Please model this.
Amino acid sequence: MVYKAEYIWIDGTEPTARLRSKTRVLDDGAELPIWGFDGSSTNQAPGSNSDCVLKPVFSCPDPIRKGGNKLVMCEVLLPDMTPHVTNARAQLTPIAERFADQDPWFGIEQEYTFFKDGRPYGFPIGGFPAPQGFYYCGVGADEVYGREVVEAHLDACLEAGLGISGINAEVMPGQWEFQVGPLSPLDVSDHLWVARWLLYRVAEDFGIAATLDPKPVEGDWNGAGAHTNFSTTAMRESYPPIIAACEALEKRASEHVECYGANIDLRLTGLHETAPWNEFSYGVSDRGASVRIPWQVEIDQKGYIEDRRPNANMDPYVVSRLITETVCSALA
Ligand code: ADP
Ligand code: MN
Ligand code: MN
Ligand code: MN
Model:
């Protein structure tokens, strides 16, 4: 007998990479082999020297095909087996290892927007729905659009064994969120990328497209972010490391923001529950700050912080590397 392995990888599209995947039929019991693809079709190689290598790094049951089939997250390598320049996971690995003694945890809130027929799902033809106000965590056919897709996606993530921890409807119609974590830097990133692939794949069967565009509709409509919640052992035990983490992030604020997703300036305007992209602030319960200390954390005097800056289209391998490096080196 055989099984189907869906090899998933991150391409070289600029300025925001996209997911690609293809299927390999393998004998039952066979290990997941290294494989290859045409990098000239993914902006990862010139046509004259087009071979790129897929190295399996994380696999889970395939909730779409079910049976003994698998989803396989891969790193992209060059034919000499060194990491491709687009391989951000390879840059995270040594940082995660260096600071593993601090046991960093990440919980990422992935916001996204459904589109159908060229407009956000729930937007009327040629116009706009009622202003924002009752869509967030709403219920009812006049407030909520796409729940059937969202439920199918949640079930798929759970069946795959991903560390998905919740879902909610967001502030703009057709906009939703799922949360992954808390998990280690590599695990949260691998799980988030596979959860993104499943989102696109599940929505495909409904004739709906999901996008991570950070500002899918201009004007008085919320953008889409990927709030990144973070803690270390020390932060989970007392309060001074919580403040020290915020101050470490302040010192390297511009370096982080530059790597938090394309078009971040369109979303971090200072309006719609954001802080301006070129200013740094932190505060308790403050959803207008760059970094929020949740109220429960102040009461408990320990816990985690929420970096509210990352865009929905960020790469978790990059964001978790930067936060781990910046905060863990300051707390070491
Ligand atoms: P919000 O109130 O900002 O919408 P959510 O409930 O959507 O918050 O997301 C909070 C995230 O924080 C979840 O993914 C959760 O797993 C994560 N989280 C909780 N505790 C920790 C922790 N100690 N370290 C890192 N992440 C955490
Ligand atoms: Mn949330
Ligand atoms: Mn949200
Ligand atoms: Mn949040």
Remarks:
- The radius of gyration is 20 Å.
